[in-house]
Each structure stands twice: as C-alpha cells, then as structure tokens.
Amino acid sequence: MTDHMSGHEPDLDRRRGAEVRAAQAVAAGGQAHEHAFTRERVADASGGGADLAPGAVAALRPGAPEPELDRILITRMHARGHHGVFDHERRDGQDFYVDAEAWVDAAAASSSDHIGDTLHYGEWMHALHAIVTGEPVDLIETLAERLASATFGFDDAVAVRITVHKPQAPVALDFEDVAVSILRHRPTLRGDHLESSAAHAVSASAEDDFHAREAAAAAAARTASDAAIVIGSGGAPNVAPAERARRVRQAVIALGANLGDREATLRSALRSITELPGTKLVAASSLYETPALTLEGVSEEAPAYCNAVVLVDTELPSTELLQALHAIEDAHGRTRETRWGSRTLDLDLIQVAGEVSSGELVLPHPRAHQRAFVLAPWLEVDPRAQLAPHGSVAELRAAAEDRVERIAQ
Questions:
Q1: Number of domains into which the chain is organized
Q2: For residues 130 and 147, is the Cβ–Cβ distance under 8 A?
Q3: Which domain holds residue 317?
C-alpha cells in the first residue's frame, strides 16, 4: 500500500457545521459556498452515516491541495553510537545519522509565538541524540523504534517518521549508505480518532489493508512498540484501534542519606523502588561515600553522605515516578525544612530515557553533570551512559572535582 508523505490539518470544531453543509450540498449536486476542512459522518435517510469521500474537500475547490498537518523536520543529525551485532561495532562505535519528521499542529504556536505551544525541536533533538549515543542495540530497526517512542514523550507529536542511516555498516561492498525508515503514530484509545480529514476514515482503496492490519497494530502495541504500523489513506497516519499501551522506559535514580543507619536506609529504599508498579530493577551500584554538600558548599563538619544509583525499567510516567519516590522518602522520615540540609533519605530522578522537560520536574536533572556522587555510581552500572545534553558520563565523571569513595558492594 502506498505510504504517503504529506500531513493533514487537524479538526477545527468551529468549521464542522460548514463541512456538513458543504458535503450535503455536494451530495445533492449543488454548489458549496463554505470551505470544508474536516471529515464528518453525514447522516443518511436510514439514520446511519457515511464518511465524506477522500476527495470531497478538494472537489469543493478544484485544484486546491488537501488539508495537511504541520511538520517539523530534523535532517542528518550526527551521533556516535555503538550499535551493531559485531564485537568491533560495540567496542569501537561508528557514525550514525538520523532524519526525523514529526507531524504536529502548529496553529497555536503560530498565533502565540510561544515555544510551549509546539514541539520544542531543540529538546527533541537532545532526546534523540541521547538515545543514539546511549545503550547499544543490535539492530538499527530497534534503534529507530526507540527514537520514535521517545518522540511520543512530547505531547505535541501526532506521528513521526524516523530514518536511521548507518553509512559505515560492516558490509564488504561498495555503497554509500544503508538505512531503516519507519513511520509510527501515537497510540489512541479504541474509538478515538485524530480530528482531521485524513484520520476520520480510511479511503476505499485502503479499506482492506486497514482491516488486515488491525491485528498487527494491536500486537505491536503490546510488544513494547509505542505505536502500531501506520495505515495511510493520504496525509498523516490514521489512528489504529489499538488500546493505549504504557511505554517501558529506563530511569536513572540517585539515592543518598547522611542521617541514621545510612546503608540500611538505602537498601530499604531500593526494595521499595523495585516494588513500585510496572517497575523492574536493571542494575544497582555499590555504595559510595561523599562529604555533605550544603548551600555554603562542601562541609566536612556535617555527616558524610552514603550514595548509590539504580537503573530501573518502568511503565510509570515520570511525574508519577517522582511522586512515588517522594512517598518512599516520606516513609523513611524525610523532612524538607532546609534546602540541601541533612536528610534520612534523598531520592533524585536523574534521567528518564527520551524525556526532556522543564517546570516542576526538570529532566535530565539540572545539576547531575556536576556531581561525582551521582556520576561515579552511575558509571559503575552503565559504562557507556550518556547524560543529555552534556554527553558521556565517563567524561563528566573525569571532570567532576568533588571527592567520592566506594565503601561497599
């Protein structure tokens, strides 16, 4: 089936009546006097409904293009990664290039001129770059899927096309490039539709493909893909009737304590973290000791901190995960009277794969790149870790000046 590149314009409630009237006029053989931008189901004599034909909008004004969603494009973003099935690919790394195209509705941002009303392409690029330079995978198909999944961590992205280029692929032939390109759309609840002319119905030529792929789309959503294969009748992808699946993402959590039985507290907190719903422990570091860091700087008089880092795979959204970490702190007697004061337990959400955010929850953690008590244990459990947008955790650890000492496994 043809996979169209164009986007589509979102549904606009104030134009719905105009389209229905225009569609009825066209169906009756008359002239339409109002513009039609959305697809609606028009009631027929039996009380049922029929979708407007795919070309009905264009028919109202011959020669006019179909409505489209806006798109944001990233071209040939370079990143050094260690992906591949061969040992030398994992060891030495190679250059990868990413093309990314996200379908968005930029109308609000066009009016407000505010970055918060659209997909922040700078944050999006950093998120993609962190994945390419991060945890290695065997296949660029898997890498592309992770990049698409990360894109849907941004609320504005309706659909995304990801192309991963691997020009240094270890094939003993003369070639310029090898690439994998995927097109994915944001999952939606059954019965929901994108509010657009392209998304409210599948064209007659694509109807058979739509039904044939429903099962495949649902299976894809169940098996860690954040989106099902796109079924397009033109414009941006149609929404498949698959139930929304929570994405599993890796999170980096830093633990610290300098009051009471520090080691027992951290081990108890680790158990509580692994018992969170939809959360699985990936790795836990040794315990490290560092001088207390206060508002006045490093203090040798205050009790020293015991620190660790854990990696978890979790289905919890980042805000829910942070709330759960605060609840674990409270259960261990944490109080918050003094900023950077001594504490029974401190749990910091350092990074969630593919997420860049600001506001009440800032991701990645804004000071993690300066803290050896975070970087050293993190490097222990993930030697190739990357902290967006600062780069290699190994290089950041080498540059960090605060003292840290491993004290227990």
A1: 3
A2: no
A3: 249-408
Same-domain pairing of 395 and 266: yes
Q: Which of 8, 129, 146, 166 is catalytic?
A: 166
Last residue of one domain, picked from the residues 163, 186, 209: 186
258 and 231 in contact (C-beta within 8 Å)?
Answer: no
Please enumerate in sequence order all residues whose Cβ is within 8 A of that of 264, keeping only pairs 6 or more positions apart, or say none: none
For residue 194, tell me if it sits in a domain.
no
- Smallest Cα–Cα separation from 352: which of 322, 308, 307, 395? 322
**280 is an active site residue:** no
Residue 167 three-state SS? coil
* 394 occurs within a structural domain: yes
| Pair (166, 254) in one structural domain | no
Tens digit of each residue's pLDDT (9 = 90 or more) over 30-61: 443 333 333 333 334 344 444 444 444 445 56
Most confidently predicted of 170-174, 283-287, 288-292: 283-287
- Single out the residue of 118, 159, 186, 111 nearest to residue 7, CA to CA: 159
Q: How far apart are CA 121 and CA 72, in angstroms?
A: 8
Q: Are residues 45 and 106 in the same domain?
A: no
The rounded distance, in Å, linking the Cα atoms of 344 and 262 is: 7
Q: Both 390 and 283 in a single domain?
A: yes
Q: State pTM to two decimals.
A: 0.45
- Sign, CA dihedral 10-16-22-26, equals positive
Cα(341)–Cα(329) distance, rounded to whole angstroms? Answer: 14
Q: What is the CATH number of the domain that holds 74?
A: 3.30.1130.10
Q: How many angstroms separate the first and last alpha carbons of the chain?
A: 56
Does residue 230 sit within a domain?
Answer: no
Cα 81 from Cα 165, distance rounded (Å): 12
Instruction: State the DSSP string of 331-373.
Output: HTT---SSTT---S-EEEEEEETT--B-SSS-BS-TTGGG-HH
Which tens digits make up the pLDDT trace of 193-239? 333 333 333 233 333 443 444 444 444 333 333 333 232 333 444 43
